[in-house]
Amino acid sequence: MTENEPSIHESAESPTAIEEDISPYESAVYSIIDLVTVDDVVEFLKAKGFGQYAAEFRRHKVDGEGAMSLTSEMLGELVPEIGPRAKLQKALQELKDNQESAESGRPHHPGWEIPRSSLKLGKILGKGQFGEVRMGELRKRGVTQTVAVKTLKASAEEKDKEDLFGELDILVTVGRHDNVISLVGACTVEGPLTLVVEFAPNGRLKDWLRNNRPKELKQKDINIGTSRILLPMEQLITFGIDIANGMSHLAAMQCVHRDLAARNVLLGKDLTAKISDFGLSRDIYEESEYVKSTQSQLPVRWVAYESLFYQVYTTQSDVYVLYILLLPGKQPYGRMTGKELMKLLPSGYRLEKPALCPQDVYVYEVMKSCWETLPENRPTFPELKATLDRIIQDHKTYASLLN
């Protein structure tokens, strides 16, 4: 999700200024997925002669919902008069028609378009109600590359299609980085939208942590209060450094993930952690992990305080959930229900120190700093990476002294 630009408040602008502002929207053909941010929709409303309703739209909506948030109900609130409302509905229908034409006629990102004939699908790696990810082989210039292929099922709704187009846009913007799953290409014409991304041979971080727990940890009678380090602390911190590094890149690109969790971190060669799932991640995991908010379903155990209670998402919201590196395949907050957790969080309740967290390093103190209620009081991802780099160096020094 792209982070909001500084807000632009409505003011009494001269006709000349307004004409200059909206000229790009008057001269270009736009489809509905081009209007992603609040500013996009505000400028579109001005271009179509509905500037008087733009401020009201800005007050109602959050960045990332774009033109698709202009539902019939919302239009009724924004435009009480029947005539102007019908005019705006017609303009929105033109946006949708342009999108359908774009999907069937021209590549969404020509430089990333892949011929469908060069792609061979293999086994399913993961699936949800509306989409699935398969292993695939991409043959290009005589070279075959193993890739991951994300597609939608026939039962997918229009919103799911827009989400996948949005994910494609984000992947193009983010570009390549060692700690982010990179886009290989996409098939956007003559068939359903298909995303082709880098394949991570070691799967999800969540599964790796579960599968690499010592056998003793899986026994019910183990004393989980012991101070024994059950996973090598150096490896856990290395995962944290990789994640902070990848998220620093996303932050620099004005990208907010909104669902950073161990299930959305993949492991490449040499166990390099890579951030993934920028748009369809909510379709891949369990519905039971969600509570219904006023606008969407939220995974309460992995979401920041301000996102859970106020539907506000920033880079500092992503910082809030970096504690995943300390939870080797375990569910945060144990068996507590989402509703129970929502009652406790406002009083200052936070995740307790995991049993596996050692006493000789201050990782838990770093994690607690990520859970500050006010986003501005949390460290940034670059700061977290620097801190974790120091911790792992101290840990190596301490370990060498013991040997």
From TrEMBL:
* A Pfam family annotated for this UniProt entry: SAM_1
Q: Name one GO molecular function term.
A: ATP binding
Keyword flag ATP-binding? yes
Lineage: superkingdom: Eukaryota
Biological processes, Gene Ontology terms: cell development; cell surface receptor protein tyrosine kinase signaling pathway; neuron differentiation; regulation of developmental process
Q: Compositional bias of type Basic and acidic residues: which residue ranges?
A: 94-106
Q: Where is this region: Disordered?
A: 94-115
InterPro entries attached to this UniProt entry: Kinase-like_dom_sf, Prot_kinase_dom, Protein_kinase_ATP_BS, RTK, SAM, SAM/pointed_sf, Ser-Thr/Tyr_kinase_cat_dom, Tyr_kinase_AS
Might you give the EC number(s) for this enzyme?
Answer: 2.7.10.1
List cellular component terms (GO). endomembrane system; plasma membrane; receptor complex
Identification of the protein by name: receptor protein-tyrosine kinase
